[in-house]
Design goal:
Layout lengths: L4 H4 L3 H22 L1 H10 L20 H6 L13 E6 L9 E5 H17 L7 E4 L7 H13 L2 E3 L6 H11 L3 E4 L1 H13 L11 E4 L6 H11 L2 E8 L4 E7 L6 E3 L4 E6 L13 E7 L10 E7 L1 E2 L11 E2 L4 E2 L4 E3 L2 E3 L1 H8 L5 E12 L2 E10 L1 H4 L3 H19 L3 E6 L14 E3 L4
Parallel strand pairs: 3-4, 3-5, 5-6, 6-7, 18-21, 19-20
Antiparallel strand pairs: 1-2, 7-8, 8-9, 9-14, 10-11, 11-12, 12-15, 13-14, 16-17, 18-19
Helix pairs in contact: 2-3, 5-6, 8-9, 10-12
The structure holds zinc ion.
The site of zinc ion has 6 residues, from loops.
């Protein structure tokens, strides 16, 4: 179902015109009201008059996460504080948090783009949405909440964690939609099995999963386990939270709400804009945001864009599922590797669980990557010879696809730590 056909099926020329008008207004506001952007534009020698259409966006400066931290907490505000009605921040585990301040209109846009997201996976006012994203400063919980409410669905704001209670609610309230991280959905399914509850029978029809990269193999695993459509959603605190992009029922790339978020793909090394279809870093400009608007924000997420029409009828650009992040890209003996690429390859083999960990060490000046993958209970009881063969198969597959030598180690069921939020996939023991 298309929530807002007026914008989601706009013709390309009309979309480009709309984006150009909105960009012009945005640049004007930032130049006049935000000293941070005024200085950056002055340094590049651009003024609002230089931006006549969306093609002029390349003249404008990028914004990085570090710059956002430098002006913490209020340095990016483009309106007075009385006009801000809600504030969210990133977790700040790796430094000062980044701040997203919303005006009333920003919250309305958030509800709108999240309504589009949930509707794209089939959510209607008849659904019961079990929202297991965390409520609080994290944007996941309230983002889904606003969108589901706009649609008129019933929201159960259970928030993250508390697995036993999640299962009781799924069973008793007959939730039809589940929203959480993809790894948590599998953790839930596993915990359900232990309690003798088959999540495939509770009546879920769709799940909206995001906040961490996941692969096609993991999607298949989730869909088989939950007997529900597993929809990939994308967003980030800096931009608005969830709602930037989401898959439709065809699951062939994530439709970007381009009337609000202008996407570009750049070469992360040079900053050059890359053509559609080429893989690089996603950059987003918030075309309509009032509170803390951003010009050309470097997301560090690696993907590519596809502007060809989709079978669903939407005309908006699609981004491929996030393939990795410029900052959790592992460099193993000079080869760039993303955890998601490894996941895709190891999960193709039957008998393993989608729980894995990558351990990198440096021995004698050489990087060594050990891929630890959990076996299923059944596999675990097999004889050693079969396990060794399976490890060698995975090592060979990894070498064939990624051209790196790895050591694959099958580990006992449930020996890799579970997370109720984002899964920790990499343990880097190198002292660099
Ligand atoms: Zn589509």
């Amino acid at each position: 179902m298309i929530w807002n056909p007026d914008f989601e099926t706009l013709s390309r020329p009309a979309m480009t015109r709309l984006q150009g008008e909105r960009l012009g207004r945005l640049v004007d506001v930032l130049y006049r009201r935000v000293p941070f952007y005024h200085a950056k534009m002055r340094d590049r020698g651009v003024t609002p008059q230089d931006v006549q259409g969306v093609c002029d966006i390349r003249k404008l400066p990028f914004t990085t996460k570090d710059e956002m931290r430098d002006v913490y907490p209020y340095g990016l505000l483009a309106v007075g504080l009385p006009d801000i009605v809600e504030i969210h921040t990133s977790s700040g585990t790796t430094g000062k948090p980044v701040v997203d301040a919303y005006t009333r209109a920003d919250i309305e846009v958030w509800a709108e783009v999240m309504a589009r997201t949930l509707a794209a996976g089939g959510t209607t006012r008849h659904d019961i949405v079990q929202n297991a994203y965390g409520y609080g400063l994290f944007t996941g919980g309230l983002g889904v909440h606003y969108g589901a409410r706009k649609i008129g669905a019933t929201v159960i704001p259970i928030s993250g964690g508390n697995t036993k209670r999640q299962l009781a609610i799924l069973r008793d309230f007959k939730s039809t939609v589940l929203t959480c991280t993809p790894s948590y959905s599998l953790y839930l399914a596993e915990a359900a099995r232990e309690e003798g509850l088959d999540l495939g029978t509770v009546g879920l029809k769709a799940g909206f999963f995001g906040a961490e990269p996941w692969s096609q193999s993991m999607r298949e695993e989730i869909q088989d386990t939950l007997h529900a459509l597993a929809i990939d959603i994308y967003g980030l605190t800096e931009i608005i939270g969830p709602g930037v992009a989401a898959e439709c029922e065809h699951q062939d790339g994530l439709h970007i709400s381009e009337d609000h978020f202008y996407p570009e793909i750049i070469d992360p090394g040079t900053g050059d804009v890359l053509p559609d279809g080429e893989k690089g870093e996603l950059v987003i400009t918030t075309l309509t945001k009032e509170g803390t608007p951003l010009l050309r924000y470097r997301t560090r997420d690696i993907t590519y864009l596809d502007r060809s029409p989709c079978a669903c009828g939407r005309t908006t650009a699609r981004m491929h599922r996030v393939m990795g992040r410029t900052d959790d890209m592992l460099i193993i003996r000079g080869v760039n590797v993303f955890p998601s690429q490894i996941e895709e390859i190891i999960l193709r083999v039957d008998g393993v669980e989608p729980h894995y960990q990558l351990v990198v060490e440096r021995r004698d000046q050489l990087d060594e990557l050990e891929v630890q993958v959990e076996m299923t209970e059944k596999m675990f009881s097999d004889e050693i010879r079969g396990l060794e063969k399976m490890e060698h198969t995975m090592e060979a597959n990894l070498y064939a696809s990624l051209n790196i030598h790895t050591r694959v180690k099958l580990v006992e069921p449930k020996s890799i730590a579970r997370s109720e939020g984002k899964a920790k996939r990499i343990i880097d023991k190198r002292l660099l």
